[in-house]
Write the structure tokens for this entry.
Amino acid sequence: GQQLNQSPQSMFIQEGEDVSMNCTSSSIFNTWLWYKQDPGEGPVLLIALYKAGELTSNGRLTAQFGITRKDSFLNISASIPSDVGIYFCAGSAAGGTSYGKLTFGQGTILTVHP
Amino acid sequence: NAGVTQTPKFQVLKTGQSMTLQCAQDMNHNSMYWYRQDPGMGLRLIYYSASEGTTDKGEVPNGYNVSRLNKREFSLRLESAAPSQTSVYFCASSEALQWRPQHFGDGTRLSIL
């Protein structure tokens, strides 16, 4: 089956610092998504990427679809306390039996100290 | 606009009991999904329904059944609950199976004793 490795597993940063996290896949993906999950809630979509090399921003968040189609990156600039949560990458394979279905990374737990 | 609504939010069962988790979406989406979330493992797909009238197994379907009741509703049933099924269950929907991002409900926290 599909495998997605997300790193780092957790991050402890000071307010105002920039954050970077990434995901790598064992297979080629045609869609990369980044979600954030707050405690007690479901994941909420942050950024969707559909094309290799695509760079997309959503406020202080920027994500990129790797040119190999096997990786993606999420950056958060000037972090604030409400950025705390779990960030998940998710990808959809380009073909085979997993076509159209999402595979999720294990998540990055972000803690921001004021 | 409610989006994806899941009921109940919390449930405790005894081993061997049965239960149905309900999910409804009001976004006129064609595809719906059930996931389970366990610590350190992200979300894993249990079953999905690409469109009304179809259902297919995901990554971890054993011990579960689903029903796509209509375009809005997709239920997940545990026929004989086991402690290994203690988890947080999320329902999601999307416009179509491919290319479209999924929108999630707030989850059902299920404990099986």
Summary: The interface with chain A takes residues 4, 33, 40-45, 48, 50, 58-59, 90, 92, 97-99, 101-107 of chain B (CB under 8 Å). The two ends of chain B are 36 Å apart (CA to CA).
